[in-house]
Amino acid sequence: MPFLPWNEIDTVLLDMDGTLLDLRFDNHFWIEHLPKKLAEKTGEPLEVCRANMLAHYERVSGKIQWYCLDYWAEELQLDIMAAKREVEHLIAMREDTIPFLDALHESHREVVLVTNAHPGSLSLKIEHTKLDSHIDNLISTHEFGVTKESQLLWQKLQARLGFDPARTLFVDDSLTILQAAKDFGINHLLAVSNPDSQLPARDIDGFPAVSDYRSLVNDIRQNPVTAGRKE
To answer: Three-class SS string for 59-121?
Structure first.
């Protein structure tokens, strides 16, 4: 269980996919389902389509295009939202998410979702999980036109929310994004070692890591935010 000084944390910024939601849906959609749809459309072999898509993902990795459904719809000439709905039954919250979010709220911390997901993807996942009822504020980085990999995003996000980086915790399954948050000055960082329930947990170097948020719940509740501290 990672040690976090909860008496020094007032604001919690949370990624969505792989952090609060099981990454199984996204991995299946982008690696299996979308190449299959492309193969059906073009008549090319599935493995060729998958290899081409993986190469394309690599070219735009970390950029707003990688997360943009409009970009992929135009590039592939496919209805991406319709394709997502074909496998939407795979959208699910992690089993440990609700206990974690409930503990954060009970301890009077501000809880903000910060996702690179396109607003269309965010809406689809909210529709299935009702995650919005457990979060104070939901933000898609598409509002800012830059991703969490960019320092500009963190500057704009702080201007919007007014959080104190020294008293903020950021949780994400992407080590690249965690490093960007660290470079900005976010003081408390937590990696998720098991973002996809169908894959083994990863060994994480460089950041504290968690595989079950329920291991944090008691410490969170025992260290609530007081009105004076939050001010």
So the answer is: HHCCCHHHHCHHHHHHHHCCCHHHHHHHCHHHCCECCCHHHHHHHHHHCCCEEEEEECCCHHH
Q: CA separation (Å) from 164 to 13, 106, 185, 188?
A: 12, 20, 10, 11
Q: Name 171's Cβ contacts closer than 8 Å, sequence gap at least 6.
A: 12, 13, 14, 15, 19, 189, 190, 191, 192, 210
Distance CA 225, CA 231 (A): 10
Which is nearest to 181 in space by CA: 194, 195, 168? 168
Residues 6+ apart with CB under 8 A from 229: 10
- Enumerate the β-bridge partners of residue 139: 114
Tell whether pTM > 0.85: yes
Work out the pLDDT band at 46, boundaries 50, 70, 90: very high
Tens digit of pLDDT for each residue in 138-191?
Answer: 999 999 999 999 999 999 999 999 999 999 999 999 999 999 999 999 999 999
Beta bridge partners of 110: 11
3-state SS of 23-40 is CHHHHHHHHHHHHHHHHH
N- to C-terminal Cα distance for the chain?
29
What is the Cα–Cα distance from 47 to 49, expressed in whole angstroms? 5
